[in-house]
């Protein structure tokens, strides 16, 4: 049985990315809002409040987490593009998922995700080869290139969509 924490497997970066892999990663990020919307379409409040696995976040928390995480990544890209290896501030995503706004209806987060990804993908598609090599410093992970971060967030959106779709499949929703 697959580990429900990693329905598409753990993130692995084997870089540098080829032009085709980069295009696929950009396309994945561009499709994330649509994929999240499709994954939650027709779910009731009770279903949205169901954890995707024992001890895991609810579907609602996952939906709110995706724009939280992707906003942080968008800002990290902008910092890395405008500063020399800035040190970014990590955030405690588990604590963010417990804040009151993570219990709200999901529509605002879906709208936020749409708008964010329109801007983010526009920025990402404008980058040249040298810009993909720019870095930011993560206090726990060390230097991260924008190319590796692109691959990570391509995976991240698909990872969380799979949390929802695999739960739907298991539950017969």
Short description:
This protein is mainly alpha-helical and 173 residues long. The protein has 7 helices and 2 strands, in the order ααααααββα. The protein has one domain: Four Helix Bundle (Hemerythrin (Met), subunit A).
Provide key terms for this protein.
7 helices, mainly alpha, globular, Four Helix Bundle (Hemerythrin (Met), subunit A), two-stranded antiparallel ribbon, 173 residues
Tell me what the structure shows.
The protein is mainly alpha-helical and 173 residues long. The chain has a single domain, classed as Up-down Bundle (Four Helix Bundle (Hemerythrin (Met), subunit A)), CATH 1.20.120.450. 60% of the residues lie in helices and 5% in strands. A two-stranded antiparallel ribbon has the order 1-2. A hairpin with a 3-residue loop joins strand 1 (135-138) and strand 2 (142-145). The chain is globular, with a radius of gyration of 16 Å. The two termini are 20 Å apart.
Radius of gyration: 16 Å
Number of strands: 2
Poorly predicted runs are none
Mean pLDDT: 97
Q: What global shape is seen?
A: globular
What structural class do you assign from the helix and strand content?
mainly alpha
Instruction: Using the coordinates above, name the CATH class.
Output: Mainly Alpha
- Helix amount, in percent? 55-70%
For the biggest sheet, the summary is:
2 strands, antiparallel
CATH superfamily: dinb family like domain
**H-E string:** HHHHHHEEH
Query: How large is the share of residues in beta strands?
Result: under 5%
Distance between the termini: 20 Å
Number of domains: 1
What is the CATH topology descriptor? Four Helix Bundle (Hemerythrin (Met), subunit A)
- What would CATH call the architecture? Up-down Bundle
Strand order of the largest sheet: 1-2
Number of helices: 7
């Amino acid at each position: 049985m697959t580990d429900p924490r990693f329905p598409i497997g753990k993130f692995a970066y084997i870089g540098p990315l080829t032009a085709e892999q980069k295009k696929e990663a950009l396309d994945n990020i561009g499709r994330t809002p649509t994929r999240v919307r499709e994954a939650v379409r027709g779910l009731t409040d009770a279903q949205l409040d169901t954890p995707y696995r024992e001890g895991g976040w609810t579907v609602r928390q996952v939906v709110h987490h995706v724009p939280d995480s992707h906003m942080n990544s968008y800002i990290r890209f902008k910092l890395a593009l405008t500063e020399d290896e800035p040190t970014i501030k990590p955030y405690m995503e588990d604590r963010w998922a417990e804040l009151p706004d993570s219990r709200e209806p999901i529509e605002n987060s879906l709208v936020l995700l749409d708008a964010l990804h329109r801007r983010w993908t526009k920025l990402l598609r404008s980058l040249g080869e040298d810009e993909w090599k720019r870095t930011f410093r993560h206090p726990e992970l060390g230097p991260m290139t924008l190319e590796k971060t692109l691959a990570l967030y391509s995976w991240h959106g698909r990872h969380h969509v799979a949390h929802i779709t695999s739960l739907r499949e298991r539950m017969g929703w």
